[in-house]
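TL;DR need structure tokens for one chain.
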Amino acid sequence: MLKKINRISSKKEFQEIKNKGEMKAAELFSIVWMKTETRNEILDSRKNRKFGVIVSKKISKKAVERNQIRRRLMEAVRLKMDIFPEGFRGIFLVKKNILDKKEGEIEACLKKLF
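>> reply
TL;DR here they are.
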């Protein structure tokens, strides 16, 4: 599981990233991302990499499956955290074909995207 400092939790931050961020797409998910400016005035917490996941009910009606997808994706992100630059903030938008994928396949897709 990702540490709390690496998770996007506020609605305000989700909206900011969705409105101002760039989008990249892969076969299993898309990511809306932005990089924060790291100036001296900005707190060190802005240097942390932060992530969020959106799994729609269109992907699966069952909450158990949506949560499993979220957990697998976040674990892959945790293991590959070093490929993201400092100050990176991103929201993963999951696609339907991720349902039957294992963590290794998700990691490979993540590596290919970045």
